[in-house]
């Protein structure tokens, strides 16, 4: 049985997300809350990979195993999270093949051929950012929103007002707020609001002024990152990875109480923007880094460190610091591949795991052919279990689909 709707406790506290496949443990927990009736989906769950087979199913599973084995080669399958991600990724890849999804394979893009001489490593992130005039300052609307966010005396109306001047941004935010992630809040305030949040002032009431402003900051800078040459990486596929990481980060932050879910969403959305700058400004280095990562079956950030001198996470962190993003958001981006500094482990661990999940599940791609290894200390810091992660993934995937639909209603072009 699969839950057709989110389940709340009688007191309105969120208990289980829509899409959860109910097992014995879930049923016991529902009983404990005296919840004797929940709404379940009419459809049967997709058949398990090993059952209901024909020749096509065998071929689909064989192809899926090959893809997942390669993509997850750096993820420890003995670890509880690695085991869950292996299983879920395999199920997803098999389903996509059985459904004839033409995009099921190869969205990581081709490894650049024709080696050229690799220039010496770059001097510093600052120099690279100086050479990109478009990134010298963030958009006007960003500055207005940031003023509101930094002023402790700012009001709900100030937050709404700062966003209202940019109708396209306002429309995207309203679509984000009218989503399943906020369904429980929307239900909890039912009676005070119509089912759909149709104004920014109401959106502020649902999400909170600071949280809506944080979402607005992140979404307002996206138009600056649209123009990677398509032979590097398809922008839609790149943003699918970013939105997948954002959806995963939001769910992980909410489930583990590590950081604010909206800050985690924005950090996930922007976690790989440094790579867009690399693709544009250091294309010869990146071609060599992609070849090296493919040959070594290693995540791309390690080859970036080797050949460019620093990785995209450090570059992204510098840019967010320069633009005066909230410090914790900047650190989540800067340290998502570098959790050696214990001071920063908690919030960056959310993005680290979210990136692992998004890459392992094949939700888009940002140039990486291999999922990054999961840092065991990060996993421990988050306090999740394998079963807990498995329960979150369907809700993350639903949020990804919904957000991609908001950002790409016609399936074309970047957000
Ligand atoms: Fe990354
Ligand atoms: Fe990533």
From TrEMBL:
Residues 100-110 have a biased composition (Low complexity). This is Metal dependent phosphohydrolase. Residues 135-339 form the HDOD domain. Keywords: Hydrolase. One of its GO terms (molecular function) is hydrolase activity. Residues 99-128 are annotated as: Disordered. NCBIfam families: HDIG. The keyword Iron-sulfur does not apply. It comes from the Bacteria. PANTHER family: PTHR33525, RIBONUCLEASE Y.
